[in-house]
């Protein structure tokens, strides 16, 4: 390792070693490979680039050399420091062993360096570790034991090297533990004892004993789990763990039992050579227990410090009392022996964890406490405000931080350029503000702030310096790379391959016509071929060239801000086209085309996509430029690089690598999982050779294009999974397969029914073995599709987990998330609630799939029924996540399964009622609402929040059915209860105000509704903010009320403001946004600006037909609005078919006498009249009058309007004598109910006078005209006096 070139290599003096140490170039290269395996994954992955054949190794390293092979500046500094530490340690080790200078060397320094790392099969173990066991050293000095373990990690063959490095970290954690130090010490000593046994039998690792190698691999995995367990006690959030954990002692005992089991297995593995024999012998040999007893002599009994701590908690009044009282928390910390700064930090951390504010989204302990102290209750703050507090005030919120660390941060972020780079690194959506979810995604739990921010700035600077397109840099748009990160083990195909794919995407054709197409490239390849990583690599390279990039879910609101090329990626597109909504992808393409002419779409698919037809509303001549490109497999060289990045040369022989490369045929996933399994001794080379390789022909010929079929890939993955030594891992895979789009730690813990520490220990084992992947941009783990397929196909041996149990836990978890979103929506964090909900769209879809599964069991249905709450479904529908029909079917299944049991189904029926309303089945919605309200009244009482919600929903159903007078009393009851129990400014109270105002509006009592709308809006703007969805709802309601009162000019700016707010927060095609768009069009129409209204009506109708369907009530409302607008523009012939279509749809969905149906009937009759076809209009007017009288009564305002319309039609047909009694009846009722001076009364008076004139009764007509003029004059005088 000390040689600067092959020619400089010499032979070291073996006098201080147990074995001679060959110093030739090949040997030196293998030695450094051993050291690389002890490094963190983000550094060890550079081993293949830094171990070239010319021997330029450790001593020649400098930052320029390291950065030339892709190492970042920060990583280069890390490697240089680790190299220096290694040399210093080896120099110390060489002195201890008495190494002398080799022949031809210039001095002792060179000699010790050259003997620093020796070949793994001739390891020079430090003398101290040979003279006394690691356990004995650890009992005397933990730092000394940790240093020895680190040295051993550099020389012990894999996987022992990894185990030694991890053990060194565990030994160091004893002194850094803030609590439960005895537990950490106990586990560290037991692990050191087992490491002594491994060291005693280390020759087995180099002599090909696969059983022993596999056992050491298990030991390495277990040490990682122990490390995760101990790490929590070094974090300032450990107080939460101590106070709230009841199963902590059980977990420690489980870890101790596993160490004991490994000790027994180790003795067997030394005696036999294959894994299979070990498993057979283990069943029979009784001496194992004796071995365990002998090996555990001298260790203290298992320490139960948790019991002592919980006894102290009970003495302070119990868990609830401690959690609620900061003084008792300090007493507990003093009991644990912490200094004052740590006590304050721990209490602050506990308070931040228990508080339900938006800061809990942040996982990093220090930043969570910091946000709570300075920005409490706010989900985002302007960057200017952030820089006032950060990092200078970190010490105030986190007193345990060292002053020098805070000073380093201040120096690091001192310049404006550094701040700009930091902001660009965090920014996901809004460049003017920083949000809690941006902090969450940028700062993982446990990250060291100074180191993390330094690395962030350096890598971001390097990326921005690579951007070559100045246009994008000056466009005012953040240079965000919004796609997931490329896998650390990703290996490129041959040079220029990805660049060639980029050229295909950017320049799809040479003809000018291609410029009018959406540029869309589809990467086609079977399972495990690396399609996603190639697509991400393309995105990263294009981003460095100035092409913005983003995920599909967030891009539509951003496209119109970018004039430069914009890349979007859809992974596994065939799932969309073959799923329940195959039109979703063409619709997406159309949205992109309508929004941006510079968008580029990149798809991946396991099979070639067929031609994609644009949706019906697409413009003529628009094409979809989709190109299918078959991906080639990895070539032999790239495949070998991938193998060596996982298992360096000293781990696998060259012959083994050749067999791996040949068997896997360039499939990256298989290379990854088989290499890991072979390197860790879980499978043999013979197993690799037996892998079934069913070939598919594809690509451009040659060896790299021969692929393994997707089925064979799945079977091979299943083989490696079945070979996992820990049966818990197979169970974990089955549990986590319920997540379709990845999971966070709390999600894994929920479905695995354990705490996050235990769950993530197993998840990280899956990650290390290549079975789970990690997306650092979203802080989520996920399973590769081939791994999911193996689980779904039931190819795992251990079927230890019941899918029903997982489903039940998953349902509770997702509904719990939904509860959090409802809570956030009730405050100022509505934008955060929207982002959080959208990020879990896949989980919501899976929830519905579980509930609609024919095999749904009662336990899962009960979980859903008890966890669902009023408001959940409304929230998800308001943010556009739920497909109403699918959700309705899900809750119908729950209702059906539990209807025979004595269960509370009120919340379920409430959800069903809401969905039926959304689909226009108002009668069915009313029946479910009445059943829900009755059940909640009986079980929960009249003033329970859920009962009040059900009463509010019942009122909504009655109002929808035109029974506003029945609804009014229920709205008033709801408002009274909420004002009394929740207060006048609670969000639910304000929503009740809105509903009451809307009901009064429906009853033509606008003068009563107006002040209620104004009150609700004022409070919501003050308490929720101007763009909260509830605020925008009130804004829209106030505008509608003003519009209906004839104050359309006052309503117009309110409509425009509501539309802008909804487009920004909800998106352009959200149902609420489309409502605002429709209302704005209607207002233009009322102002006589029908030409401005027409394109808005057309846009609204097209969007609603696409998103809601042709017969949805909102779609039919837009259809009617568009027909009215065309009629107003004199285009009655264009309006007529729209009116007919609307009437037919409403008769089908609402029934012949629904108020909406009668309105369409009236509009169709009016259109016939405008076209001079009054004879066709007459029977429609008669039918409308009869139905209105029957449903609303003879004196309802709508009935009187129908009388007017029918009489006018009769007059046009010269049947004034038939019209006269109708007009007289209308006038009499209006004078009696509205008064003689009401505008409607005066209009009736004028119509009657006109009819009398037509009949030749001029004197009577003139007297009515005079009477009307007098009444009008009186009305005018009254208004003047009032003013």
Q: Would you give an account of this structure?
A:
Helix 32 links the parallel strand 4 and strand 5 (566-570). The protein is mainly alpha-helical and 1283 residues long. The N and C termini lie far apart (97 Å).
Count of extended strands: 11
Quickly count the helices.
67
Distance between the termini: 97 Å
* Fraction of residues in β-strands: under 5%
State mean pLDDT (0 to 100 scale): 75
Helix fraction bin:
55-70%
State the main characteristics:
1283 residues; mainly alpha; two-stranded antiparallel ribbon; elongated
Strands, helices and their partners?
Elements: H1 25-36, H2 41-44, H3 47-50, H4 63-67, H5 73-97, H6 108-114, H7 127-131, H8 134-140, H9 142-155, H10 160-176, H11 181-200, H12 203-206, H13 210-231, H14 238-244, H15 248-271, H16 275-284, H17 287-295, H18 305-315, H19 319-324, H20 326-335, H21 340-354, H22 365-375, E1 380-382, H23 383-389, H24 394-397, H25 403-412, H26 416-426, E2 433-435, H27 436-442, H28 449-465, H29 470-473, H30 497-506, E3 517-524, H31 531-544, E4 548-551, H32 552-559, E5 566-570, H33 573-577, H34 584-595, E6 599-605, E7 623-630, H35 636-646, H36 654-664, H37 668-679, H38 685-689, E8 695-696, E9 707-708, H39 710-722, H40 727-736, H41 745-752, H42 756-768, E10 772-775, E11 780-783, H43 785-792, H44 803-825, H45 830-839, H46 841-852, H47 858-867, H48 872-878, H49 884-898, H50 906-918, H51 922-940, H52 945-960, H53 964-981, H54 987-1002, H55 1006-1023, H56 1029-1044, H57 1048-1066, H58 1071-1086, H59 1090-1107, H60 1113-1128, H61 1132-1149, H62 1155-1170, H63 1174-1192, H64 1197-1212, H65 1216-1233, H66 1239-1254, H67 1258-1282
Parallel strand pairs: 3-6, 3-7, 4-5, 5-6
Antiparallel strand pairs: 1-2, 8-9, 10-11
Helix pairs in contact: 8-9, 8-11, 9-10, 10-11, 10-13, 11-13, 11-15, 13-15, 13-42, 15-17, 20-21, 21-22, 25-28, 26-28, 30-31, 35-36, 35-37, 36-37, 37-39, 39-43, 40-42, 41-42, 41-44, 44-45, 44-46, 44-47, 46-49, 47-49, 49-50, 50-51, 50-52, 51-52, 52-53, 53-54, 54-55, 54-56, 55-56, 56-57, 56-58, 57-58, ...
């Amino acid at each position: 390792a000390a040689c600067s070139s092959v020619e400089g290599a010499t032979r070291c003096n073996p006098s201080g070693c147990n074995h001679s140490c060959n110093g030739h170039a090949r040997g030196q290269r293998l030695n450094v490979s051993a050291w690389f395996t002890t490094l963190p994954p983000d550094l060890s992955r550079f081993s293949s680039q830094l171990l070239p054949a010319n021997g330029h190794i450790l001593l020649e390293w400098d930052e320029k050399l390291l950065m030339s092979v892709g190492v970042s500046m920060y990583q280069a500094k890390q490697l240089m420091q680790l190299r220096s530490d290694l040399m210093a340690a080896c120099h110390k080790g060489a002195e201890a062993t008495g190494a002398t200078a080799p022949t031809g060397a210039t001095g002792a320094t060179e000699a010790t360096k050259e003997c620093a790392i020796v070949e793994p099969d001739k390891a020079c173990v430090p003398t101290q570790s040979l003279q006394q066991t690691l356990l004995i050293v650890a009992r005397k000095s933990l730092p000394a034991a940790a240093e020895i373990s680190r040295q051993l990690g550099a020389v012990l063959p894999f996987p022992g090297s990894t185990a030694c490095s991890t053990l060194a970290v565990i030994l160091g954690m004893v002194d850094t533990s803030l609590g439960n130090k005895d537990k950490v010490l106990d586990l560290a000593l037991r692990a050191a004892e087992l490491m002594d046994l491994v060291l005693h039998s280390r020759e087995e690792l180099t002599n090909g004993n696969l059983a022993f190698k596999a056992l050491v691999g298990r030991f390495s995995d277990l040490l990682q789990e122990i490390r995760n367990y101990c790490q929590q006690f070094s974090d300032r959030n450990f107080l939460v763990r101590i106070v709230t954990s009841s199963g902590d002692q059980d977990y420690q005992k489980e870890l101790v039992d596993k160490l004991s089991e490994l000790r027994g297995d180790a003795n067997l593995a030394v005696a036999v050579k294959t894994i299979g024999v070990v498993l057979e012998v283990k069943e029979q040999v009784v001496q194992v227990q004796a071995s365990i007893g002998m090996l555990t002599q001298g260790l203290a009994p298992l320490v139960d410090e948790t019991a002592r701590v919980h006894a102290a908690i009970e003495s302070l009044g119990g868990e609830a009392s401690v959690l609620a009282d900061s003084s008792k928390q300090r007493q507990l910390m003093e009991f644990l022996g912490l200094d004052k700064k740590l006590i304050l930090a721990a209490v602050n951390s506990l308070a931040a964890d228990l508080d339900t504010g938006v800061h809990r989204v942040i996982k990093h302990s220090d930043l969570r406490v910091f946000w709570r102290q300075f920005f409490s209750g706010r989900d985002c703050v302007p960057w200017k405000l952030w820089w006032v507090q950060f990092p200078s005030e970190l010490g105030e919120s986190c007193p345990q931080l060292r002053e020098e660390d805070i000073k380093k941060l201040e120096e690091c972020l001192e310049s404006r350029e550094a701040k700009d780079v930091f902001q660009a690194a965090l920014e996901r959506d809004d460049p003017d503000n920083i949000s809690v979810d941006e902090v969450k995604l940028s700062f993982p739990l446990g990250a060291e702030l100074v180191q993390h921010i330094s690395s962030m700035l350096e890598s971001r600077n390097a990326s921005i310096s690579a951007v070559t397109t100045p246009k994008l840099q000056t466009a005012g748009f953040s240079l965000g790379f919004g796609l997931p990160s490329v896998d650390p083990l990703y290996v490129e195909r041959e040079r220029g391959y990805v660049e060639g794919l980029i050229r295909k995407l950017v320049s799809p054709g040479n003809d000018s016509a291609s410029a009018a197409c959406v540029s869309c490239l589809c990467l086609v390849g079977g399972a495990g071929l690396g399609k996603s990583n190639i697509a991400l690599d393309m995105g990263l390279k294009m981003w460095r060239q100035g092409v913005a990039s983003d995920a599909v879910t967030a891009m539509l609101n951003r496209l119109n801000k970018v004039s430069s090329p914009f890349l979007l990626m859809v992974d596994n597109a065939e799932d969309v086209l073959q799923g329940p909504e195959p039109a979703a992808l063409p619709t997406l393409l159309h949205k992109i085309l309508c929004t941006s002419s510079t968008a580029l779409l990149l798809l991946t698919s396991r099979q070639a996509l067929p031609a994609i037809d644009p949706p019906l509303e697409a413009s003529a001549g628009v094409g979809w430029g989709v190109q299918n490109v078959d991906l080639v497999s990895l070539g032999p060289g790239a495949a070998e690089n991938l193998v060596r990045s996982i298992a360096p040369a000293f781990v696998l022989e060259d012959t083994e690598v050749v067999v791996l490369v040949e068997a896997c045929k360039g499939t990256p996933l298989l290379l990854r999982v088989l290499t890991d399994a072979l390197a860790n001794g879980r499978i043999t080379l013979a197993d690799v050779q037996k892998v079934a390789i069913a070939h598919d022909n594809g690509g451009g010929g040659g060896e790299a294009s021969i692929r393994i079929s997707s089925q064979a890939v799945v079977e091979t993955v299943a083989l490696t999974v079945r070979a996992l030594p820990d049966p818990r891992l197979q169970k974990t895979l089955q549990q986590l397969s319920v997540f379709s789009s990845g999971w966070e730690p709390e999600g894994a813990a929920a479905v695995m029914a354990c705490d996050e520490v235990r769950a993530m220990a197993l998840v990280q084992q899956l990650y290390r073995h290549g079975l789970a992947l990690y997306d650092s941009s979203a802080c989520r783990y996920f399973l590769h599709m081939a791994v999911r397929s193996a689980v779904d196909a039931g190819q795992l041996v251990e079927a230890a987990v019941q899918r029903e149990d997982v489903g039940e836990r998953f349902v509770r978890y997702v509904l719990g998330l939904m509860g959090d979103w409802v809570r956030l929506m009730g405050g100022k964090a509505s934008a955060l609630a929207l982002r959080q909900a959208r990020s879990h769209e896949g989980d919501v879809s899976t929830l519905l799939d579980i509930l609609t599964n024919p095999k749904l069991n009662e336990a899962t249905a009960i979980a859903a029924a008890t966890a669902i709450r009023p408001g959940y479904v409304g929230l998800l529908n308001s943010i556009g996540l739920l497909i109403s029909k699918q959700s309705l079917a899900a809750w119908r299944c729950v209702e059906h399964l539990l209807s025979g049991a004595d269960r509370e189904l009120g919340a379920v029926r409430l959800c069903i009622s809401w969905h039926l309303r959304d689909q226009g089945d108002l009668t069915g919605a009313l029946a479910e609402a009445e059943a829900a309200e009755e059940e909640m009244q009986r079980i929960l009482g009249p003033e329970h929040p859920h009962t009040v919600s059900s009463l509010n929903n019942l009122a909504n159903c009655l109002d929808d059915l035109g029974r506003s007078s029945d609804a009014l009393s229920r709205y008033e009851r709801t408002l009274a209860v909420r004002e009394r129990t929740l207060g006048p400014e609670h969000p639910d109270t304000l929503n009740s105000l809105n509903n009451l105002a809307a009901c009064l509006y429906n009853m033509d009592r606008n003068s009563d509704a107006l002040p209620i709308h104004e009150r609700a809006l004022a409070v919501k703007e003050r308490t929720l903010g101007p763009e909260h969805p509830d605020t925008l709802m009130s804004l829209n309601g106030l505008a509608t009320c003003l519009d209906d009162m004839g104050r359309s000019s006052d309503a117009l700016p309110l409509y425009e403001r509501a539309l802008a707010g909804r487009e920004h927060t909800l998106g352009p095609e959200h149902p609420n946004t489309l409502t605002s768009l429709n209302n704005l069009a209607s207002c233009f129409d009322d102002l006589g600006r029908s030409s401005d209204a027409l394109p808005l009506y057309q846009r609204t109708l097209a969007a609603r037909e696409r998103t809601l369907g042709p017969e949805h009530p909102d779609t039919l409302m837009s259809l009617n609005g568009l027909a009215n607008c065309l009629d107003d523009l004199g285009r009655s012939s264009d309006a007529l078919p729209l009116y007919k279509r609307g009437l037919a749809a409403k008769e089908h969905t609402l029934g012949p006498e629904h108020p909406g149906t009668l309105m369409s009937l009236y509009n169709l009759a009016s259109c016939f009249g405008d076209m001079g076809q009054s004879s066709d209009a007459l029977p429609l007017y008669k039918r409308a009058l009869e139905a209105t009288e029957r449903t609303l009564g003879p004196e309802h305002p709508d009935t009187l309007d129908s009388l007017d319309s029918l009489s006018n039609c009769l007059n046009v047909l010269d049947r004034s004598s038939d019209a006269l009694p109708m007009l007289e009846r209308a006038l009499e009722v209006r004078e009696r109910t509205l008064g003689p001076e009401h505008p409607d009364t005066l209009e009736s008076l004028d119509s009657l006078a006109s009819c009398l004139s037509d009949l030749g009764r001029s004197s009577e007509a003139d007297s009515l005209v005079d009477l009307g003029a007098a009444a009008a004059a009186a009305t005018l005088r009254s208004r003047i006096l009032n003013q």
